[in-house]
Every structure is written in C-alpha cells, then in structure tokens.
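Message: I would value a second opinion on how I read folds in token form. Give me a protein, with the fold worked out from its sequence. Write it directly below this note and I will take it from there.
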Amino acid sequence: MEERNLRNDLNVAGMSQTAGGNFHRVSIDGMAKVNGNLDCTSMNVNGTLKMHGTLSSESATINGMCTLNGPLISSRVRVDGLTTINGDLRSPELEVNGKCTVRGRVDGERIDIGGVIDIEGDVQCETLNVQGNIKISGFLNAGTVEIRLHTSSSAREIGGERIDIRRKEQTGFWKSIGLGGTPSFRTSLIEGDEIVLEDTEADIVRGSKVHIGRGCNIRLVEYSGELVVDPDAKVGSSQRI
C-alpha cells in the first residue's frame, strides 16, 4: 500500500490510450483504452473503459461502462454501471447494483447482488446475498446462500451449509421494468445442511433439515434429519438417507 501511494495518478477526462502501468489513483471520466496490465490503489470509472490485460487494484468502482479482456483482482469491487469481464474475478468484497457479466469464475468472501449478474464459470464464496437477478452457468459453492427472487434466476448446481431461496414480491424497480420472467429459480442439484426453498425447480435436493415451500417442483428429495413439504409444492419422491 505504501509503495502504491508514491505512484502518480492517472486521470482521463477526454479520450486517451495508454499501455497500462503502475499508478496510485486511476479516474476515468472520459473514454480510455488500456493495452496492457494496470496496477493501482483505486480505480473509478465514470466514463468508458476498454482494457486488454490484468486489472489489479485495492478498490474498483464502476459507475459507467467497462470492458475488461482479462482478469480483475481487487480487494473491493462495486459495479453500479455496466461491466463485462472476459476473465476471472477475484475479490473478497463484490457488490453489484448495475449489470455485470463474468466470462470466467468468481472467487470471493462476500458477494451482494442488488442488480443483475451473469457468471459463466464457478462461484466460490463465504456468503452470497442476492436481492436482484443471478445466473451461474457453473457450480456455486458457498457457506451461506440467501436469494430473494424478483425474476428468473438459475445456477447449474449449489452446495453450501445454509441455503435459503424464496420469492420476494416485485416492487419498485423490478416491478417497473417487468423483465426476467416470474420469480423462479432453476438448478439441477442443491446440497446443504439447512435448506429452505420456494418457487424452485430442481432435480435433486439433498440435506439434513429441508423445507420445500410453495411453488417448488422437485424430482427427488434426500434428507437425513427433517423434511417439511408445503401443500403448494410438487415432490416426485423423497427418502431418508
């Protein structure tokens, strides 16, 4: 951190192209193209950034439009604008209130999604909190998963200790845009210790304490402790393991 503080700042207000490098604070208010790796203390994008290389930063805040053709490594990432990462994303703290596409895997500790995120790879984290829309083409592995459904979300498979997926009635922004379909979640496998589900379609749900709530359609439930099935849920078969 001390070494980074001694670096020069990079401020782009108009149009600029750079080969990357090492900087202290980077601020993009105009249009910038970076051809190379960029290492900085903080990155703030209020304009447009297109980059070919690795972005390493203590913090990264995207309010404008950002396209990274390479991995993003940061202690804190916040996306309020539109971001596409053609690579992996590694950050202990990730917050998405805008729209983010990650064409690699995501590794973190705490992930908060209030907007829209589409992840093509696997996700590994301690806690995942979703109040928006999420699509994970790979495997989600987290200690705690809490998803409040506004629209149609999905993941290939989910594994965790505590998994809680429920509907949240559409209000405000989500109701006004009317996009993404009815509140629902689709996955092939959910495996955890404590599982609470609503409006979820899955092939297999496996856990210790399992609650299958309204609107669920589950082919097979395997449980070792307690199973509760709502009258408004469909379960093909269940067995104690």
